[in-house]
Amino acid sequence: MTTQLTKLLETEVAKRRTFAIISHPDAGKTTLTEKLLLFGGAIRLAGTVKGRKASKHATSDWMEIEKQRGISVTSSVMQFDYEGHRVNILDTPGHQDFSEDTYRTLTAADSAVMLIDVAKGVETQTKKLFQVCRLRGIPIFTFINKLDREGRDPFELLEELEEVLGIRSYPMNWPIGSGKQFCGVYDRGKSQLELYQGDDHKDIQVRKVDGVDDPLVKQIAGEFLHKQLSQDIELLDVAGDPFDMEKVLKGELTPVFFGSAVNNFGVQTFLENFLQLAPKPEPRNSTAGVIEPTKEKFSGYVFKIQANMNPAHRDRVAFLRIVSGKFERGMSVKHVRIGKDIKLAQPQQFLAQDRDIVETAFPGDIIGLFDPGIFRIGDSLSEGEEIVFDELPTFSPELFSKVSIKNALKQKQFLKGIDQLTEEGMIQVFTTFGFEDMILGVVGQLQFEVLEHRMRSEYGVDILLQRQNYQFARWIVDEKIDPGKFRINSQLVKDKKGNYVGLFESEYALRSSIEKNPTAKFLTSAP
Ligand code: G4P
């Protein structure tokens, strides 16, 4: 029998889309996010999201270092409604503030939007983030941005998607000219032109046409651009991949859209198509099997912990992705790892910069839980059941520092701090053989800076960080590994669980170690 709650869950789940935007800094992620929020009416003024990047922090109570640098240290969540859908955007920070949080956020998304600068193509950070999405097999939608500027040939960009990322593509629309000559896009599915007007127009001018060879296309695009468009579309129809929804959902084919975020061109078309094609909140694996979002009992997992959102109190916020059931403020749930019931009293939801108290929430939503120090990354919460969701992956660090304390008398606080911050997932700790030195690994430089800052302000410990030359870490699984005989240029260490990890100074050192140890497996994340 279908209960009322099941019906409600079905409706709420069907409405929701939870995604992250992946891109390299400067591709236009802030701009695109802002335009999307504007469509949803979540913000009234352009510049609201952008303000976070600048050093205006009048209303912000984020941690000190964030203010100093005028950036957002950790990713946040934004929610808005659009035409019957509830959209959750998970922000993934870029640049120096790139951190493991960035990767982990992707585990809470059901799909990703890959934003690419038309002049630059696939850049390093996009590549890294893409790999994480690929591992999870989530659908990826591509928005090629800045068509108002001179850029690379669109075919060349699609080839790059395939060669560099290994994903095939299906252009949903196709640009007519670029840069100064950019006059809009041709929508392949709807057979219509969307005309570029050059500035921030909310309403797009659309002209229905009968295929690319409709005289109206020639009239609007001019002889030269029309000829090019006609040839391009023919080539796509004949030699391109057909649209295949199954492949899209498996992350094997990416629907591609062209536009110009800053001019608000192509954003609405993108949003509307995305909402149609992107998956609703997906089930998650657990020790109790697959948990469907429409399961009546509430469950969820913590994917990120952010410290000191309000420095006046030493509080932390644990970000919970709801997997199943209905969340209600004040409900009691089981904290599975510690085996205790806890009351979720002050949950927060995120709307651009403001944090609001949330009364109810559904699968796919992210809520922020006040954390007096009881949560760890990956913790599962459930309505009375022994559900433990699959462990979140540990990502291979790329920057390493030896850590020690300036004042040896503070050893106890030092160990406590390192331990807690490791649990929070801010750093990874490795120990060398012999001297038992501590080496910390991170994926972004800012993690070290935040670590120094927090060790001082929260634990009263000054630390010394000595950068190490390693570039790669690999978990080594081998029955007969001999720590003494490991290749030079590299070091064998242990992680917190005692797994062997090789730290390598160069790709060459890594490769030769792999060759010299044919029986060993070299893994990019902990086994
Ligand atoms: P990010 O979050 O990915 O780092 O990128 P962001 O949105 O901040 O955009 C980076 C720059 O690219 C900004 O310019 C932004 O205005 C510009 N941009 C975004 N979309 C488009 C587009 O469609 N066309 C063009 N021509 N530019 C675009 P800026 O000069 O760094 O900042 P600002 O002075 O505009 O604030």
UniProtKB/TrEMBL annotation:
InterPro entries reported in the protein's UniProt record: EF-G-like_DII (IPR053905), EFG_III/V (IPR035647), G_TR_CS (IPR031157), P-loop_NTPase (IPR027417), PrfC (IPR004548), RF3_C (IPR032090), RF3_dom_3_sf (IPR038467), RF3_GTP-bd (IPR041732)
Tr-type G domain ranges (all copies): 14-282
Compartment list: Cytoplasm
Superkingdom, taxonomy of origin: Bacteria
Keyword match Nucleotide-binding: yes
PROSITE patterns per the UniProt record, alphabetical: G_TR_1, G_TR_2
Family statement: Belongs to the TRAFAC class translation factor GTPase superfamily. Classic translation factor GTPase family. PrfC subfamily.
Role: Increases the formation of ribosomal termination complexes and stimulates activities of RF-1 and RF-2. It binds guanine nucleotides and has strong preference for UGA stop codons. It may interact directly with the ribosome. The stimulation of RF-1 and RF-2 is significantly reduced by GTP and GDP, but not by GMP.
Protein known as: Peptide chain release factor 3
Organism: Paenibacillus alba
